[in-house]
Design a protein that fits this description.
The chain has 8 helices and 7 strands; from the N terminus they run E-E-E-E-H-E-E-H-E-H-H-H-H-H-H. It is α+β, with helices and mostly antiparallel strands. It has one domain. The strands form 3 sheets. Strands 6-5-7 form a 3-stranded antiparallel beta sheet. It has a two-stranded antiparallel ribbon with strand order 1-4. Strands 2-3 form a two-stranded antiparallel sheet. The longest helix is centred in the middle third of the chain and has 12 residues.
Amino acid sequence: MIWDLDDLEPKVSGAWQRGTGPAMPVEFARVSPKRKQALVLVIHQEVPAPSTTSYIMSTRTSLDEVIEDLAARERTDLDHIGHATRGGKSYSRNDGVAETAGQWLDDTGLDAAVWTDLDGNFDDHTGGSFSHEAGLSYLRTLSGQSLFEAWQYITYAPAETDTPFRRFLSTDSWWNSLDYNRDQGGGW
């Protein structure tokens, strides 16, 4: 999202606060129809160590509006947007995530946080559980624009999104042979 705010762009202000958000258990373990079946980040409880996240300020004054904005950007229902308020209400489909966000809010003094809280769906698309090998095998089934989208999403995620799968891919010769900057005549 950092490099692709999409329709959130007019609804946020200031710069991304990179690597200063709460540490969350995220992994590139969700197949995204929006991103042409690429693997994208999702809350993934099996991650052994959480990754730091980033945040940006909303121009909205109502938590409900912020939730609606993120749901529209993610093209999902409101119940797939997690949220927490400092010392107040919270919602997450994943154990411990709202509590982590709430503690981070207490530590920073910010009023509220929202995040995309989609279910993992790797097994729905592949028939098996996510693992590094299964993720790589899935990526190898992609071609054309779908493979480019997957490469772009994983490659341009912030460096602080240091997930185990991303580290695994960095050692794979096939993945490293993909060079869309050269092939596409540019980059971001």
